[in-house]
Amino acid sequence: MTLEEVLEDTELKMMKSVDFVQKEFTTIRTGKASPALVENVHVEYYGTKTRLRELAGISTPEPRLIVIQPWDPTVMDEIERAILKANLGVTPLNDGKVIRIPIPELSEERRKDLDKVIKRMAEDGRVSIRNIRREANDEIKRLQKSGDITEDDMYRSEKDVQEKTNEYIIEIDKHLASKEKEILEI
Question: Block means of pLDDT (10 residues each) for the chain, length 186 residues?
């Protein structure tokens, strides 16, 4: 692996870590209806685990209501079971044609619990980025020991990796601040 490939691979992995944290944040309920809350719930469909968004139309006609319209009405009960099993803190209402999910107001205690959850998710993302930095630095040192790059290149590259690390950790922190504001808003 060349130095350029190491640096490109490192940045790509860091971007993926930030994207993962951002996707994790969308699964956290904030008191507002969002299709992201249920779209990745896995439903047993003819013996196969299938994401809900592939089985039904998901809409939010009101700020506190998610409506799920399955394309195959025979899967209604499975969708309802999958949502309950996903433990999202919501109760689906099945009327035989559509499933409605009212989103209750969050209590102050629940908001604080969710805040702790998203802080842990953000910290997991930061740890992931630091692990990627460590792997990149190890690879850079290996390249230097094998004589593929000079010592100056090694130090310069390690500095570049640290700058990217800082950049992506700041990005996670921005997403965290935004999600915290969303959760703690009354």
Answer: 92 96 82 81 89 91 91 90 83 91 83 88 96 96 94 95 97 94 78
C-alpha dihedral sign at 90, 94, 97, 102: negative
Q: Residue for token digits 């805040």?
A: 115
Q: Which of 163, 166, 143 is nearest to 18 (CA)?
A: 166
- What are the contacts of 101-105 at 24+ separation with CB within 8 A? 101/33, 101/37, 101/38, 101/65, 101/66, 101/67, 101/68, 102/64, 102/65, 103/29, 103/31, 103/32, 103/33, 103/37, 103/64, 103/65, 103/66, 104/31, 104/64, 105/31, 105/64
Cβ contact 13:132 at 8 Å: yes
pTM value is 0.70
Q: Output the pLDDT for position 186.
A: 56
61 φ, ψ (degrees, to nearest 5): -70, -20
